[in-house]
Each structure stands twice: as C-alpha cells, then as structure tokens.
Q: What sequence folds into this?
C-alpha cells in the first residue's frame, strides 16, 4: 500500500519548520551581520554524575546515582577512536562549522518536505548538546529555532573540545548509561580509556537509537551499526580499510558490568541518612533535599569510617553463629572508643532482598528493643558516682517487692532473679557477675531511676529515657547503636565521643567539601567510676554469665536477656573496640526457645559467641592492651574482705585484701571485729604430767600458766596421792586466741619428794620426750620441790629423763 499523500496544511507546517532551520543555517553564513540570541545568557550546567562511597581503606562500598548512571571524565581520558567515531557518524563537519551545519540543514529540508513531517533536523553535536542540556526535546517550531540559536552561542563561548567533552559526558548510550565512561563500563566492563576501535564504534553507533541498536538487547542491529560507523570512519580518513576489517570481524562481544550491589549495605544506608539529615553537613546544602541531590547527582567521593576487616569479622561471626535459615537475625555495631569512629555495622540480613518485607529495616539503628541486664552497667556506674562501693554487701533473695514510692513510683514493684535463684548476701561485684536482679532493684531504688536515666542519656543513648525503677534492669528500649555508644564511653574511661561515620567528603574536582571538626570528646563520667565499672564487668567474663567468651586480651561486658527470651544481648568492650550484639526476630517479640529456635537463646549464648568471634578476628593482628588505671581517682587500702572496713591487727590473714576505691570513698576506720586474735583449738592435756602438758601446749602455739593445788585449794587430796604432778584442770579447754596462755591446775606432790620445780615463764620449757604419756621420774616418779602456788616453767632436774 502506498503511503497517503500529506494534506496541504501539514505540508505547509513542515515547510515552515524547514525554512526556519534553513534560516538558522543562513544566519550562520551571515554571522557577521546577524546574531540570534536566546532570551538569557547561555551557560552549560554541570551534568549529574555518580557519587561513590568508600571505606576507610578506599574500597568502593556503593555507587550512587538518581536515575542517570554517569561518571564525568576529561576529554583527555577518552580514546581518539571514540572521538573520531562519534564525530564521523553524528556530525562529520563538527570541527569546521559554528554550531549549525548549513549543508545538513538544507539536506534535512528536502527530506522533511518529501516526508511531510519533521523526520530529520540536521542537528549538529552542538545542537544535540543544546537540546539535552538546555532546551529540551519538545517537538515545536519555537524549540527548534531556540536550539539553533543556543548552539550558535555555545560555539561563541566554548571551545570545540569543551563542547565535545560536555556532550560525551552527557549523552545517553542506552542501558541506563549516561556518558561514555558509564557506557564503557556497562557494555564492556572497562573504563572508557581502555576501549578498542570496535568497542568505540559500537558505542558511537548506539547514539542514534540507544534502545534499538543496543548490543545487549539486539546484537545483530548493534553489529550492523558498528560496521556502518567503521565504514564512515574509513570514508573520512580516520582509519584505513584494514583497521576497519579487523575491528568488524565477528560479532559484537560484550562483557556487561551490572550495577554493583552495595557492600555493608546497612552501614552505607546509615551513612547516607546521617549526611542527609544532620545539619553538620550544611556544606552540601542547607536542607535534607538539597543534600540528597548532591549525594546522588554531585559526583562526590564520600570517605567513611568503616573498617573492612572489622566489618568482615562481624559478618563472618554472624554467618557462623546463625547458620540456619530459620535462625533469628542479628544486629552488630562496633565503635573505636578512642575516636568514636563507627567501624562496623550489621543491621539485619539481605537489605537488598526484594522478597523480605523487613529487609530495609536497619535493626542496628532503628529497632528499639529492651536490653535487659545489658543495661545494668549504667545502673552500677550511677551508684558508684553516688558513693556506693563494689564491696558493699547486699541481700540477694530469690525475689522481693519494693514498696510504692509516690509520686514518681506510685505502685509497688515485685522482681525476681533468673531461675528464681537466691544468693544470700553478695557484694556489687558478685551481683554484677551473676546478674542478680534483686540486688540491682535495691540499687536503683537507692540511687534513683532519674540518675540512671540521666547518665544513660549523657553516656551515649543521646535521648531522654523514662525514669522508671525498672530502668535499672533494662526495661527501657534502646538500639544496638546506642548500646555500642555507651560501651565506647566506658571503654574510653568515661569520655563520650560523637559517633563518626564519615571521615571526609570530596567534590568532583578533588576539593574537600567537608571534614569533621577536631574534638576530644566530653567527660560524662568520672574516670574512676568508669574504671571501677570496667573491673566489675571483667568479672562477668571470668566468673559470671559471659564465660563463653575466651579472648587473650582484657575484655569487659554484660549479658542481657529479656522476658520470654524475646531479645538477647551482649554488649562489651576492650580498650580498642566497643561492640554491641543483639539477637532476635525483626517482626517483634518472638520467644527464642525450641522449637522456634535450635536452642534457648540468652545473652550468654549466641550474642556472646558473636561478640567473641568478632573481636577475636577483628583484633587478631593488634597486640592486647590494658585498660589504663586512672591516676589520682582511686585509693587502695587493705580491708577485711568480709566486712569492708580497714583490717585490724586481729583480722585473719586470709581475709585481708587490697581493694581499690574511688578516692574519698575508701574505708577510713578499722573493723571492730575481731577484737582479739582468732581462736585456735586447745590440745586436751588433762591427766598429763605438767611438763608434758606445757610442751604440748607450746607446740600448738600457746603458753601455759601452771598452778599446783588440789581442787579444794589445799595440798593434800586423793589426786595428790594417786596422780601427783598431773594436770587435773585446763582453762580454756576447747579454743583460745593464738599465743594466749592456758591456765593449768596440777596435783601437788607430797612434801620432800624429788621431781621438777615449776617456774614462772613457760616460753623456755624443754619439750618432753613423750608428747602425751605420763613420764616417770627417778625413784618413785614424782616431781620434787614444786611449791603449791608457784607458776612458771617446768625445768628438768637431775634424775628426770
């Protein structure tokens, strides 16, 4: 069927349009006489281009673009083959015309009149740039005339190379690639500077119809177009026939590089959100919308604080620990205490998974959950700040009820320990190690819930928390990022540093647009309080609920488990890393108990394992460092460990310990008890000869005071006749302080009998050869010459063995 003949009216419009284009061409020819100016001075806008997010070592984490994937490069970075190919096929008189090519316009005039429509415009590269960057693509007579006039002014203001560079960085090559650099990477997986002749011709061939001549979607059309470009380059003398034949041999070979998925995607998302909404970044714009535009269109290099080794360690730890598809999710946040730099962040699994309805929720920064006992370090620090001591003794029943305390606490509060365990009495160290709720309930009652809430806000939570008594046991909701900040403050000795996620932002021209202001942080906690809290938390790992952690370096931390095992935490730190780990289900409070999970999940299980694996791998190359002891903030004294008072001369040696206190809170008075040396067992010497009894007592650490008399006070009694010189009474008889004197009563000997005399001091008494049996004297076996009331040593006489 023959095409219908155009009606008169459309033919007149086509003729008019073509005449206007021709007029523009004539104006070029008469440029010295007439100049067509646009309504406003012409400037070339900076084309939108990709921004890139990199980690602390310069590795790419993400490329950002808002609909146009573009990376601007200088014309000197583009190969001559590409420049020649584009000029040859798009505008072969580019280097000689002044913006509008008169022969091309006249040729288009004839084509359009014959077609009865505007099917060809004779547009030069300069006109195409004017349309793309300034005028727009509306099909109208006015737009076409303005396009020509803008092209004329562009040529008068910019050099040919500047115009061509802008064009090659702006024009669309298909597949979402804007500009030659992005197109080279998208189709061939190389930078534009590495394009060979065949690849350059292929890219130039897509410009006429990017969707039709696309080498990915229609290789045959792309090949035909490539070969046409090569032939045109031969005709214009840019290459010879042999070069064209070599470049056109075979089909178009592509090696497409798909847009790379974000690395550490939850970290990247948090960094971008921080830049957009934090007024510290006004260098990129005065409001969030303007900053977002610069982020996605401004060609920025966003240098972040992420440590790839720490991030990999955290990802490996989570993958190893939570290895089953049905396992709960984990959130992990790692901060460097000395700088506040956010070094690793995991906010869930599969952020870019379109089938996961909660994939976009950043569990590390947005999901507030109860931390349970992981919050107790703040309660302990608040108590130490108010003069409490780690050595204080507290009642630790299985459960207790704290009475109402209006108006702040109008209702009574009943709380119990994990497993309803009772502990008798514990000091605060032990109560922390074993996470004893009943002690911590009393502690928050003593210091006040508002004191805990205030400290939490200043130490890293960064917002006001409700001052309820249960805050001391972790009933308030916080994020893993907030818990990591708190632990970073403790690790830094009570200094809070603002969490940094960006270290520098550089513009497309290499100029630094933003850097953080130097800051040493602010002290929010006495360094002695922080150190004492750390010492208690170290015991959680060695003595308490965190013993699954096995690191060859100083480490402190606290487990946390909420009711019904719905949330499980481990938050802790070394001097070099503060790390917060949460395990749970993003959908809400889902009990983590079988059969829903493979095991009953508490803070000392999977969260502690993730903590252990992350720290072990991340710090494998770093030598262990100690928590520095704060000079001047602490006082060390010898105390009776059972009483928390200064040891006195009678304190048993095994109870004397050197304890450290906040300066000014240490005990200053000696203990009232014990008031005498400790009691020791007294040997039973009844019935033994006096000298043997004294020797036995001396060996046991006692001295003896001997009285020779009968029970009635006289010197003649049946015992004196039957058992002269033997002990008939000792006082005390069971226990006595060490080195004390034992009173012995001895039967007298008949007057004139031979034996041993008793002197006053027993310290030099000679030991008996027989420790317990009666020792016979010479002759009749009696001890001679001992006065009745004499008290003293037993001195061997002649005839006594």
A:
């Amino acid at each position: 069927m023959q095409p219908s003949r155009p009606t008169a009216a459309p033919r007149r419009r086509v003729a008019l349009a073509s005449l206007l284009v021709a007029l523009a061409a004539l104006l070029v020819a008469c440029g010295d006489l007439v100049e067509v100016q646009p309504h406003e001075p012409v400037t070339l806008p900076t084309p939108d281009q990709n921004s890139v997010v990199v980690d602390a070592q310069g590795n790419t984490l993400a490329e950002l673009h808002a609909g146009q994937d573009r990376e601007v490069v200088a014309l000197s970075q583009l190969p001559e083959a590409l420049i020649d190919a584009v000029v040859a096929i798009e505008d072969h008189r580019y280097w000689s015309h002044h913006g509008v090519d008169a022969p091309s316009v006249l040729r288009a005039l004839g084509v359009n009149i014959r077609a009865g429509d505007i099917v060809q415009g004779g547009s030069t590269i300069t006109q195409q740039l004017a349309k793309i960057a300034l005028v727009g693509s509306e099909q109208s007579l006015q737009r076409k005339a303005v396009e020509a006039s803008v092209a004329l002014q562009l040529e008068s203001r910019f050099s040919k190379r500047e115009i061509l560079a802008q064009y090659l960085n702006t024009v669309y090559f298909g597949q979402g690639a804007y500009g030659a650099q992005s197109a080279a990477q998208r189709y061939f997986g190389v930078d534009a500077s590495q394009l060979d002749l065949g690849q350059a011709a292929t890219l130039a061939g897509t410009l006429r119809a990017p969707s039709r001549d696309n080498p990915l979607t229609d290789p045959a059309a792309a090949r035909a177009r490539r070969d046409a470009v090569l032939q045109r380059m031969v005709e214009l003398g840019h290459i010879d026939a042999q070069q064209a034949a070599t470049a056109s041999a075979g089909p178009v070979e592509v090696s497409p590089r798909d847009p790379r998925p974000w690395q550490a995607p939850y970290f990247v998302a948090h960094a971008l959100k921080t830049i957009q909404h934090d007024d510290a970044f006004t260098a990129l714009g005065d409001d969030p919308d303007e900053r977002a535009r610069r982020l996605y269109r401004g060609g920025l290099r966003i240098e972040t604080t992420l440590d790839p080794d720490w991030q990999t360690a955290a990802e490996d730890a989570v993958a190893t620990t939570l290895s089953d598809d049905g396992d709960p999710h984990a959130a992990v946040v790692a901060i460097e205490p000395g700088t506040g730099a956010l070094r690793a962040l995991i906010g869930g699994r599969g952020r870019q998974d379109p089938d996961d309805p909660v994939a976009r929720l950043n569990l590390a920064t947005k999901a507030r959950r109860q931390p349970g006992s992981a919050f107790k370090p703040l309660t302990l620090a608040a108590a130490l700040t108010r003069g409490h001591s780690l050595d204080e003794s507290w009642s630790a029943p299985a459960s207790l009820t704290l009475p109402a305390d209006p108006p702040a606490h109008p209702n009574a509060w009943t709380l119990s320990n994990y497993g309803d365990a009772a502990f008798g009495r514990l000091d605060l160290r032990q109560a922390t190690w074993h996470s004893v709720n009943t002690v911590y309930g009393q502690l928050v009652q003593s210091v006040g819930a508002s004191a805990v809430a205030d400290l939490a806000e200043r130490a890293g939570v960064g917002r006001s928390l409700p001052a309820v008594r249960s805050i001391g046991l972790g009933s308030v909701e916080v994020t893993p990022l907030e818990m990591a900040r708190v632990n970073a403050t403790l690790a830094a000795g009570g200094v809070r540093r603002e969490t940094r996620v960006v270290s520098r932002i550089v513009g497309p021209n290499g100029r630094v647009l933003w850097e953080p202001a130097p800051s040493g942080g602010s002290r929010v906690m006495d360094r002695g309080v922080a150190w004492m809290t750390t010492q208690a938390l170290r015991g959680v790992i060695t003595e308490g609920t965190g013993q699954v952690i096995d690191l060859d370096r100083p480490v402190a931390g606290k487990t946390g488990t909420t009711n019904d095992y719905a949330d499980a935490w481990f938050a802790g730190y070394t001097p070099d890393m503060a790390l917060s780990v949460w395990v749970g289900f993003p959908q809400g409070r889902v009990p983590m108990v079988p059969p829903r999970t493979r095991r009953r999940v508490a803070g000392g299980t999977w969260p502690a394992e993730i903590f252990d694996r992350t720290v072990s791998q991340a710090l494998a190359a770093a030598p262990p460092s100690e928590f520095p002891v704060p000079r001047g903030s602490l006082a060390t004294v010898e105390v009776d460990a059972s009483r928390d008072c200064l040891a006195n001369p009678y304190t048993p040696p095994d109870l004397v310990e050197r304890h450290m206190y906040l300066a000014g809170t240490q005990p200053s008075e000696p203990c009232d008890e014990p008031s005498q040396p400790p009691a020791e067992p007294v040997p039973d010497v009844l019935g033994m000869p006096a000298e043997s009894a004294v020797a036995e007592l001396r060996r046991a650490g006692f001295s003896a005071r001997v009285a020779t008399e009968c029970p009635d006070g006289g010197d003649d009694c049946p015992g004196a006749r039957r058992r002269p010189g033997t002990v008939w009474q000792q006082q005390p008889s069971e226990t006595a302080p060490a080195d004390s004197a034992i009173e012995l009563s001895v039967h007298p000997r008949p007057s004139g009998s031979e034996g041993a005399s008793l002197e006053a001091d027993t310290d030099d008494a000679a030991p008996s050869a027989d420790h317990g049996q009666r020792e016979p004297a010479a002759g009749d076996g009696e001890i001679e010459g001992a006065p009745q009331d004499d008290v003293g040593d037993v001195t061997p006489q002649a005839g006594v063995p």
About this structure: DSSP finds 22 helices and 28 strands in the chain.
